[in-house]
Amino acid sequence: MTVQLHNVSHEYNYGKVQALRGINLDIRAGQFVAIMGASGSGKSTLLHLIAGLTQPRDGDVIVLGHHLGKLSDNDLTLFRRRNIGLIFQAFNLLPTMTALENVMLPLIIDGKSKREIRARGEHLLRLVQLTDRMDHRPDELSGGQQQRVAIARALMNEAPVLLADEPTGNLDSKSGEDILYLLRELVERENRTMVMVTHDPRAAAYADRIITLSDGQISEELGIVAEVMVS
Ligand SMILES: Nc1ncnc2c1ncn2[C@@H]1O[C@H](COP(=O)(O)OP(=O)(O)OP(=O)(O)O)[C@@H](O)[C@H]1O
Ligand SMILES: [Mg+2]
Q1: Can you give the pLDDT at residue 106?
Q2: Ligand 2 centre from 79 Cα, in Å?
Q3: Which helix (H) or strand (E) is 195 found in, with range?
Q4: Phi/psi of residue 35, nearest 5 degrees
Q5: pLDDT at 141 > cutoff 70
Q6: Ligand 1, from 12, 47, 198, 211: best to mutate by most atoms within 8 Å of Cβ?
Q7: Cα-flanking dihedrals φ and ψ of residue 106, to 5°?
Q8: Which of 50, 54, 128, 191 could form a disulfide with 30 if both were Cys (CB 3.0 to 4.6 A apart)?
Q9: Distance from the CA of 197 to the center of ligand 2, in angstroms?
Q10: Ligand 1 within 6 A of 44 CB?
Q11: CATH homologous superfamily for the domain 3-230
């Protein structure tokens, strides 16, 4: 299993907000999972736990064999840099850098050849259809274009696990579909694992499994019936 959650609960404000309650979830390599549910049902919290950005109050989160609860802060940072591609709502693009520089940044830190990194960055920006915007700074891009830069950046480290919070939230339906198609292709061709939060049933339709959270619990799961039967 690529992602395993055992009895995971999480609370905020010293127990006043019970964000997740007793979540059990196994996701295997090459699966595309959509997480749906009302606002406040715990979707982003779940992604943060899988990314190791938040430690659960209770239960175990195991990603690619790493017990995230047992890793030091340094090891968690390394774990994320190598294994996780994050596509979150705040794009966190650096305002003084161009689109291409923003995309290249995660790998520059790792000390690979700059030429190689540039070639990969350009390739990814072409994939998200920003060929003619590579030299633009974030404030010279539309919201949807900034979102696509953030998606290209998340794909830069070739992470086996991609986590996305409303990746198509700011996109028109055509650009949104292009991105979903691209993510779907990455899952299928490169056996990557994708967990995507979305409110949009059309986006969720790209997934193999659709999990619905209600009030911090899994209330419904669609699409896995055939797999349960074979395993
Ligand atoms: N940092 C925090 N401190 C306190 N409470 C929080 C914090 N983050 C989230 N919560 C609360 O935890 C619950 C789950 O929040 P979460 O962000 O996971 O919901 P969500 O399903 O992603 O919602 P949305 O669809 O609105 O993004 C909510 O009731 C929220 O108010
Ligand atoms: Mg959220």
Answers
A1: 83
A2: 23
A3: strand 193-197
A4: -110, 120
A5: yes
A6: 12
A7: -60, -30
A8: 191
A9: 8
A10: yes
A11: P-loop containing nucleotide triphosphate hydrolases (3.40.50.300)
